[in-house]
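Worked example 2:
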Amino acid sequence: MISPRYEGDHIDDPSARLVAFGNQLVQVHIALRERLEELGDHLEEHLAGERGRPIDLRTHCLSFCAAVTTHHTAEDDGAFPVLAREHPELRPVLDELGRDHRIVTDALRELAELVERAGEGGVSALALRTELDSVAALLETHFTYEERRLADALSGLTGRLGAVDADLVARAVQVPRDP
């Protein structure tokens, strides 16, 4: 598949953007995985005393959590309703993914709360590592399932969507910016 050219935040050829939706979903997940790995590295550096400012870890965690939340909100409010209308057979999958999003939101909230308490000295290193590992496992399972079940359907929307629906889907597959 030919990859589209980007100009700023927008793809310069709307038809290329449509072809790319499935690939863009995978790319946004790769970017989120990389940010999660960076957060894990930051946590390890913090726990080893190499990063002495808990506020930096907190900021990094909040940035990551916001990126995942933005992506999932755009899916729930935009891409999933479009997919449900265009591919009614995917409704059970989309419902399941929506439930996953709520579980991920709860896990991210717990992680952020632990990081906040860690800045106050109220959380063990083991608790932080365990929670981050749990979030990583949850997201990996979620991303893999979502890619397997939706990427082809998203790519199949080529030329079938009006501008409003195309923009709704595009928001859900936009790679998050670095903080």
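The first helix runs from residue 14 to 47. The longest strand covers residues 6-7.
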